[in-house]
Amino acid sequence: MASTNDLKNGMVLKLDGGQLWSVVEFQHVKPGKGPAFVRTKLKNVLSGKIVDKTFNAGTKVETATVDRRDMQFSYMDGDYFVFMDMQTFDQLHIDRKTVGDAANYLIEGFDATVAQHEGEVLYVELPAAVELKIKHTEPGVQGDRSTGGSKPAELETGYSIQVPLFITTDEKIKVDTRSGEYLGRVNS
């Protein structure tokens, strides 16, 4: 248990009958009239839904212990992604639904943070940007480069994103894992 006065960003709370909510942001408000309160923005750990919730200052809330571990993606086993804990070398099978959008950017050897609560995997979090190779993209049309247009490109993971016209097949690029946007070339 913790008090709403002790809230921090990233803290995971157990609310509404055991649902896990992560604190995205919070603000202590002390109005001129009436009691102080805490305004929060909470994100459901499993569904990703974001809600605003207000608590009276000093209210007790139940916290959840979330174990975040750095793991390395090893290989696919059917519909399961197999991650290896780099300290214990234990392997963890995580289904595609739990991995979510991170699956679009995972290749063997990539590091990720795997969050667990009471033995259940909650989510897989990748670094903000990853470096991936372009598997295939059409060549840019001559004279079309000055417009700043974009074209589809298939990454080595099989996922397609939009890239600038000057990018070619087999080039290595940086991709934002949160939005799927092209961030730039990687100089080899």
Automatic annotation (TrEMBL):
Record domain Translation elongation factor P/YeiP central: where: 68-122
Intracellular or extracellular location(s): Cytoplasm
Cellular-component GO terms for this entry: cytosol
Gene3D superfamilies, sorted: 2.30.30.30, Nucleic acid-binding proteins (2.40.50.140)
Matches recorded under SUPFAM superfamilies: Nucleic acid-binding proteins (SSF50249), Translation proteins SH3-like domain (SSF50104)
GO MF: translation elongation factor activity
Name of this chain's protein: Elongation factor P
Source organism per UniProt: Streptomyces qinglanensis
Protein's gene: efp
